[in-house]
Amino acid sequence: MSSPPPLALSILLSRLRGCSTACHALQCHALLLTSGHLAVSPLRLSNLLLLALASASAVTHADAVFARLGPASRHPFPWNTLIRLHAPTSPRKALTYFARMRRAAVDPDAYTFPAVLKACGCGVGLLLHAEAVRRGLDRDLFTRNALLSFYCRIGDCRSGRKVFDDGVRDLVSWNSMVAGYVGCGEVELAQELFDEMSHRDAFSWATMIGGYGKQSGGVDHARELFDQMPDRDLVCWNSMIDGYARQGRMDEARVLFDEMPERNVISWSIVVDGYVRCGEPSEALKLFQRMLRCGIRPDRVAAVGAVTACAQLGALEQGRWLHSYLEKKKVLFDVVVKTTLMDMYMKCGRLDLATSIFESMPEKSVVTWNVMIVGLGTHSCGRDAVKLFYKMESEGAPMDDLSVLAVLTACTHAGLISEGLTIFHRMRKDLGIDPKVEHYGALVDLLGRAGHLDQARHAIETMPMEPTPELWGSLLAACRSHRRVELAELSVERLASLGADDSGVYVLLSNIYADEGMWEGVMRIRRLMNAEGMKKDTGRSVIEVDGQINDFVNGGSSHPHKDEIYFMLWNLANMVAST
Description:
The protein is built from 34 helices and 2 strands. By secondary structure, it is an all-alpha fold. It has a two-stranded antiparallel ribbon with strand order 1-2. It is elongated and about 95 Å long.
């Protein structure tokens, strides 16, 4: 066979090394086959081809190429490449390749253990450590850093520290140990090690800032470190902003965000998500819209945050526009985003649109099923919710305690006493789920709404854990509906003993007395509230009109159309009075 032209080979090698997509890698493979180069130099080119396929995450094709290697598979390089490719997403397959490598009598090298350790749990990792020691590879810095990271990843920082202390170290070793302590919640130990570092890079600073930012009350210490940094990169800015957002300090997060010299999509997403989690959906939507105007393509976090903000506001039109935008721009449209859209439509009253998304999803998570069951219950479709729950069970879909809570709540709203009790009593035996206090809360609500108040009280007093204020509050609410004054007074006594007798509790008890004409009791409650300085919480509501969010506060007079609104209310009141 005549040798192919050397110029053609150099071009192919350049293209092979520059592969960035699976399609590009497959094209290079086809050219290698048709040009004859692969037959002339199978070992070298097969290894380069595998590396290109792995870099492009072309998993299936990489497996197929490896299966045809022949003599080239006697070298550890192709095995290492396949192990490294599968470790992040298919750890079992990565371990299978390692086992096959050992059976094929191919000796692991210094690159094998770092690759396979990323796929390991505790037991296998310990065996691999022993194997690395037996082969003398535990002294290799690359392998030692991998072992250190492995121990920290499984939460065994003590063993990780032994590896760290025993031998030569580089900056990766220091950063891995600091990150390990932070990951295990040992931020003080991480700080001690951080202070010993002779050289730090941006990762070192970002790790410490992120660690303190996630620690309750640690964000001020994180800010001290942030202010000490000689050079701040984008990761450190994002870590500091995330720390403020996690602690609910959105004003400070926003100030830092506005001061950033540059931003990426993560910067925007942190603040959008922070506003949503802190109950400021209007600010979240404003920032998301500004993000789009700046030409930033949203990621999953930003998209979920914006959709959740629409759900919190009941902003249906903005939610529908956002749905259309995400589909049109082909933003990551996975099960998380679709489930969030379902939840938004449910909360905005569009059960039909939520159902359409649910039925079109080829893949559903447990959260997807739970959202659908909750939505059906909220929209007075309790029987449909129960049917969906049993369908979920019959299809073997993953189920958790929230699934049961969702269907119990649906039964409560629909008055399905028998169905709810049946599901509750099946939890431990048939579903393998231990009832939590929330499930007992749903049971109490179910019985209370149906008028079985003595059974509800019995459930509270015999449950295996300490009752929470929410359970006695639920029973108190049922007492008003079913005019049980003595039981209401008992419920208030229990709430007082738990320190949960706030203004809402006494207002409810006062209303119960008023319903029964017990005016002396009403006056006694009012005197008690005045003496304790209790005030009824101010009512407020939010609606969307023509895409605009309108916020109303009880007794407020700041709305620009307040005169027209009060005039309409006056007309409605007269219409009601005249009927």
